[in-house]
Amino acid sequence: MNSTHHATRSFLRFNIEQHILQKRWLILVPVVLFAAYIMSDEMLVVAKSQGLSPNIWNPLFNIFGNGNAVFWMFNFLFLFLISDLSVETGFGALLLFRLRSRSKWWLAKVLTLAVAALAFAGMLLVLVGGVSSFAFPWSTSWSELARGYAGRIGPNPAVLVLSPSGAFLRLITLLILGWFSLGLVTTLVSSLTNNGIVGFLAGAVINIAGLFAYKGYIPRYLQNYSIATHFLLDFHRFGTKASMYPPFGASIIYWAVWIALFTTIGFLLCRKKDFLSEKDRS
């Protein structure tokens, strides 16, 4: 029993080292810093022209709550970083034999993906918060710009009934759940095909479908079933039942069902995965 637990922990540690503690994650630094600089600078121009003072919450909500940034930049970056998570190397296949369990193999992949989603969010927060803190003061309340320019830059007016920290916690929770869920599909397809590019494309198709929904290219009655609604905090109602948007709890349920479904499918399909036919047997 102890040897089995040790093998499981070793395999999980191997996956984290192999797929997260890698230099390619450093691509986030120049890309995100550049995007944060451009979007923050744009916000400062608006604030000055309107004569409204901003604070740190303005760039945080404008960047992390921006549908274009989420679907065009963050989602594709995350898919790129995790697309080969389930593509097994020869050494990884040997570790599988030590595990003596295909289910534990899939569980380790799912846990690694969860760590990747948390690490991705953490890195983005450090980068965006770091560069924004040089130009925007910290505060515990909404700024004049957020209240006077709500819905155009920053969160929609309905979100302002919450505290900035409470709203941002909800925003980040939706993003992490969304990245984890999107990553599950990518990881599952990569595992079935043993090809990270195919997995990336599968995730990209779902992401683009969400982008179309965000842009309003699908009927309104279908949008609540799209990932776009459940990725973005602005597409939720707070404090009113008259809104056409779902409550925050509905998105938690949406992502929980998605995660449970694709995790279960992964457990079922990994039993049929032929590790002996992998091309890479280094």
From TrEMBL:
Keywords: Membrane, Transmembrane, Transmembrane helix
Positions of transmembrane segments: 21-39, 69-98, 110-136, 167-189, 196-214, 252-270
Superkingdom in the source lineage: Bacteria
Protein name per Swiss-Prot or TrEMBL: Uncharacterized protein
Source organism: Candidatus Cryosericum odellii
